[in-house]
Amino acid sequence: MLSTRSRHHGAISPHRRQHRPNRRTTLCPTCSSVLREGHDCCSHDIAHHWKAMPAHVKDYILDQGHLSNDGFISVNSLVNFWSAPQNMAMTQRVDICGAAWYLALLYLRLGFLNEARALTINGAFIHQCITTSIEYIVEVCASKDTTDNIMVKLARCAEGFYATESPEKMESFIQRYLPPDYQKTMTTFANLSTRTEVMGYVNQISDDFHST
Question: What number of other Cβ atoms are within 10 A of residue 129's Cβ?
Fold first, then answer.
């Protein structure tokens, strides 16, 4: 989807210098997107960004744990999972929120829509936790209010949930929070190796998530 191809017709004149392709232009063998020099395929980025989350979180997201039995988004399921004692601290981690959305964008480009939706939804839920708190969400969801009113109170959740209605809306939503320069930062994160470098990345994006 992201690659561009050009065809050259006719023979090249022996009197003209033959154009040589830019050696720095590399296409990802998985999604055919153009990669910057020194960066690996998006499959490497996917594997690396999943490392930001424990295995049981990855399983919950990829197993579509946020869905109810009738296939709709279940806020109660999200609340029950993310408010569990072993998960609550992660609801304030901006690196997990950013990783979820960046993974969603990668999966979206690869055509894996279910995975992209699940990551978008969970990222939006964590974003809501960051801007308010998991305790606030628990309180709102425990009220006897209507679903519409609950979604008004959980505006960050609602924005992400509604974005999953189509691939176009999802990409637009993610691009809003992860503009091109920000995505470059996320790609750089996949190539960081030391804790100091990783924490520098986390500090760099922290203010962005708290201000959006």
Answer: 25
